[in-house]
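User: Teach me something about this protein's shape.
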Amino acid sequence: MEMRPLAHRIAAVAARRLAGDARALALLDAAPRERRVLVRSVPAAPRTLVARELCRRRAHQGARVRYLCLSDAAAAEVDRRFATARRHGADVRAWPVRRLVAHLAADPRLATAAEFARLRAANLLSAPARRLDLLVVDGAEDFDAADWALVRRLAQDAELWAFWDPAQAFWSDRPLPPDLFRGAAHLDLPASRALPSGLRNALAAYADDAAAIPVTTGDGLWLRIVDAKDPRPTLARIVAGLVDAGIGGHHVAVLSVAGRYRATPFAAPRAGVEVRAADAPDAHRHLVTDTVLRHKGSMRSVVVLHDLARGTPRYATRMRIALASATALAIVVATDADMAFDPRLLAGEGGTFEATSSSSPRHVA
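Assistant: First, the predicted structure itself:
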């Protein structure tokens, strides 16, 4: 398939998402005003958008609001979008939970998980904090017991909303604290209808209870077979093809599924294309290369997945998290060994994918 129309297809998906986002935000209009609200989400649902809009609306009404998540990258993106509200006097901020602890306790060691867990016993969460009116937790499936200790403290006198997606729960030992949400109002947030069919099918295929069968054909999903010895030239060609097709680097993320590559696996493919880690302050302006888990909670129009996690713990969950971060197109860069390990990547009847030696991936419709 010619790459040039891809920019138009991504714009069309974005337009459809706007309509879908309006429907999702209607959940806030109908939501009960309770002290505890638990919103169950699914992969590809616009949960961060809804959580962010909840914060913005309540802050506009004069509430003191804080948004918490685990990821530095996701918190930075959300906080950047709060900047306009703050310029108009709203008291709303987004924090990665452990950096907020470090800020409150004036102890930078607490920004790391190990120090947070170890020093929590030393009562370092007792630093004074101003009262909140609303606390919003996004990605509640990522919070561990120490994270919830801070949430309990901050939400003592505040409303608490938690958005969670059990299908994206990577750590099996991080349950929601049942006593904190006893009697909470429960809401459901469905997946975006704008999601291309190929991505929708792939997310379903990597569900925990799904049979490992080839993903059915559909728009929004491509596969490239690469030499296991060095996938970097293929990654560079794919990104160069996207850039040549008019896809700005800020729409693209190249993610290591297994988590072995935090740094870029290739040089910037075109003059003027700069590469950043997911948590860089200006990541929203540039192409991102990082690991799937460090990028979790952030979205890009196009996500290129490499370094597949065959043989690593929770492979299907890693793939589900990775695919859920794409809004228009996921390109899976796989080796023959990856294909042998994961039958979902095999072409199904009629041809789901085409492996090609050309410089750009081609979708088989």
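Now, about its shape. Residues 250 and 286 are 4 Å apart (CA to CA). Residues 348-365 have pLDDT under 50 and may be disordered. If you'd like, I can walk through any region in more detail.
User: That's plenty for now, thanks!
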